Amino acid sequence: MTTDTPMQRGGTGELRTDLAPLTSRFGLLESAESATWLSGRMGDDSVPGPSTYWIDAIVTLSEADYQALLDDYKAVDTTTAPVVESPLDEQLPDGQYLASPELDAAFSQDTFRSTVHLSADGQTLILRSVFQ
Fold first, then answer.
1. CA triplet 56, 109, 66: central angle to 5 degrees?
2. How far, in Å, CA of 111 to CA of 131, rounded?
């Protein structure tokens, strides 16, 4: 596999709604109201070595928590839309999104690399993260 080839995302395709696995990994989500998410492992199961995992999530926050993220991490209108795996993609909210490098960095601690969007609806956060 070359570095130009994206790693294949594997997983069960099962939509999950339990919050604990998200809140334990992402402290900024500890007071999330609800979430729908998918996860899995990247790469080829037949290749030995350390594993890289992924999580895609749509998270509902309180209006106050949403506003705090918006203010603290300088999220602004963006022309990029979030990308998440199917069937989670069917639950993405319509409309405008906000994002910022600071918001991505806030969810990219330790071995996590994350891309985060806030929906302009005032309560929804969309997270795409990979980690070892």
1. 60
2. 5
Name the pairing type of β-strands 9-11 and 34-42: antiparallel
Peptide bond into 87 cis (omega under 30): yes
What pLDDT, in 10s, does the model give residues 82-109?
999 999 999 999 999 999 999 999 999 8
Domain boundaries, the chain: 9-131
Cβ-based neighbours of 95, under 8 Å, separated by 6 or more: 119, 120, 121
Condensed to tens digits (0 to 9), the pLDDT of residues 56-69 reads 999 999 999 999 99
Among candidate residues 45, 47, 22, 44, the one with its CA nearest the CA of residue 35: 22
Rounded to whole angstroms, the Cα distance separating 1 from 125 reads 33
Instruction: Check pLDDT > 60 for residue 51.
Output: yes
